[in-house]
Amino acid sequence: MVGAFQGSGVVVTGAGGGIGAALARRFAAEGARVVVNDLDAERAKHVAEEIGGIALPGDASAVVDDARDALGGAVDVYCANAGVAFGGGDADAPLDETGWATSWEVNVMAHVRAAHALLPAWLERGNGRFVSTVSAAGLLTMIGAAPYAVTKHGALAFAEWLSLTYRHRGVKVHAICPQGVRTDMLAATGSAGDLVLQPTAIEPEAVADALLKGIEEDRFLILPHPEVAEYYQARAGDPDRWLSGMNRIQRQWEESR
Questions:
Q1: Which of 255, 235, 236 is nearest to 246 (CA)?
Q2: pTM attached to this predicted model
């Protein structure tokens, strides 16, 4: 797909490293003009300089207007990639900014706010592309990470709603749902991540490759780990059996701690 996004205006949030940086590099390689957003200004600047993009540090929830100005008036592709995961997040995780509140704000509401800002122009011109970095946790779940798992389900639900509501009006939506990816976030998952995610972890570049292939094939659901489709079907087909299997993993994790 070299050159498929030639001249397109692309925004990637959380692009200072990991999956976001890989997406920014890949879109730049396709000829896009890329806005690199990250809370860490230095990391955003570093990636932007590497790819010839535009660094726009700050809160992902409020980046659309500035990004539109930086791109000369139009955002063609918006990658809602910024996310948070707090270690040790059981159901009793803090309700404040150190747990549930920030998880909802970043993993769900930042997507909602971005879509609210983007949709009027996209619907007027009849095209636009919204990419949501969700996680296999949004299709399945994740042990030891209640705020993350629950809010990623919310991110997936919002992406599905966007797609079913606006696809006939030219808005394309893609939900990326990888399992383990070798990033700082994976390293922060601790023993739960070591048990569930590390054995099949992939590089961020593989996620970017999967997205571009999914875009080419016009697919909503992007699964860099193909086996996730089987797990998702098993979960839907027999929820009690699936929950029992996940509970065995939970007990295995508890016994290993």
A1: 235
A2: 0.93
pLDDT at residue 124 is higher than 80:
yes
Cα–Cα nearest to 142, from 105, 107, 96, 101: 107
**In 3D, which of 181, 186, 246, 180 has the Cα closest to residue 254?**
246
Evaluate if residue 93 carries a pLDDT over 90.
no
For Cα atoms 48, 158, 36, give the angle at the middle one, nearest 5 degrees: 5
Query: What is the rounded CA–CA span in Å between residue 240 and residue 171?
Result: 36
Helix (H) or strand (E) holding 130: strand 128-133
Residue type, 49: E
* Whole-number Å distance between alpha carbons of 20 and 150: 21
CA angle (95, 16, 221) in 5-degree steps: 75
Do residues 72 and 9 make contact, with C-beta atoms less than 8 angstroms apart?
A: yes
**Rounded to whole angstroms, how far apart are CA atoms 35 and 17?**
14
Sequence letter at residue 72: G
**Token pair in block for residue 63:** 């980046």
